[in-house]
Amino acid sequence: MTALIVGGDRLGNIPDVLNEKGIKDYIHWSGRKKGMRKMSVPSNVDMVIVLYDFIEHRLTEIIKEQTKSMDIPCIFSKRASSDLAGKLENCINCGRCNA
Asked: Which Pfam families does this UniProt record tie to the protein (predicted)?
């Protein structure tokens, strides 16, 4: 399973949390620069994780629109590994993604 992480200059323990939940690969965008608004969510990702306390605001809206149109699960989380772990657990339990 592959995830796109948008936001956060440094990920800290987040890769460990992803690995524990079965997400082996990830792509990271810092999400701080205006130019990132032009980027598109890659078609090979299974879910998008937005770290909303470290992202340019309009990019959050763009990511939300893209994931909705691509029918990809999108998780909004703080950059705390404990918050992300809980949100990932909820997403996995809903059965929409293949984690």
From this structure: DUF2325
- SS3 call for 44: coil
Q: Which amino acid is at 47?
A: M
CB hemisphere CA count around 28 (13 angstroms) = 13
pTM of the predicted model, to two decimals? 0.85
Domains belonging to the chain, first-starting first, are: 2-94 (3.40.50.10700)
Phi, psi of 50 (to 5 degrees): -105, 120
Number of neighbours of residue 1 by Cβ within 10 angstroms: 16
Residue among 5, 10, 21, 23 nearest 86 (CA)? 21
pLDDT digit string, tens, across residues 77-97: 888 888 888 888 877 777 665
| Distance in angstroms (rounded) separating the CA atoms of residues 74 and 4 | 9
